[in-house]
Amino acid sequence: MDWKIELMFAVRALVAAALGGFIGWEREWHGREAGIRTYASVALGSCWPRLKVTKIQGPAMKRQSLLRSDNK
């Protein structure tokens, strides 16, 4: 397990939740429905699949770059 990659994923997930929470806070401040928890959850939920795909594609992308004939 590469801890740098895991830390990067954790930071990205926290940033997504924080930005979603900020948008939710702004909505609550204006008295609208769907506030902090909703937007933080949606942002984290939309971030999660992309992180999983990135983790799965990581080793495969390295193999593809080794097999390409136009490497520089």
From TrEMBL:
Residue ranges annotated for the MgtC/SapB/SrpB/YhiD N-terminal domain, each copy included: 14-48
A family per Pfam: MgtC
Compartment list: Cell membrane
A GO CC annotation given for this chain: plasma membrane
Keyword Transmembrane helix in record: yes
Major localization listed first in the record, in broad terms: membrane
Keywords recorded for this protein, A-Z: Cell membrane, Membrane, Transmembrane, Transmembrane helix
Domain of life: Bacteria
Membrane topology (UniProt): Multi-pass membrane protein
Family per similarity comment: Belongs to the MgtC/SapB family.
Protein name: MgtC family protein
Species of origin: Stieleria neptunia
